[in-house]
Amino acid sequence: MASAFDDQRESIEKHEFMMGIPRGRLAVTLDMITDALILVGQHGVYCTSARNPNVPALDLQTVLQQLTGAKELIQSVLQELTPRPDSK
Asked: DSSP alpha helices (H): ranges in the chain?
């Protein structure tokens, strides 16, 4: 498996240039998690719970929950890194 730095090199370079190194890397990480959420969500359409076919299988529900939580944490870090107007 390729390193995320190798696999996402162009995107990382672009975001680091626009936002700085920490914010740029977090932004790319957020994009990667969003892509993973989409893929797991699509997979959940086909792998449904045996008890309730209207929801994804339990393991997929757990993966979705963890990815969503990780995304929320990264978003909160990005917000903390954003300069506030009152902090001059």
From this structure: 4-7, 9-19, 21-46, 58-81
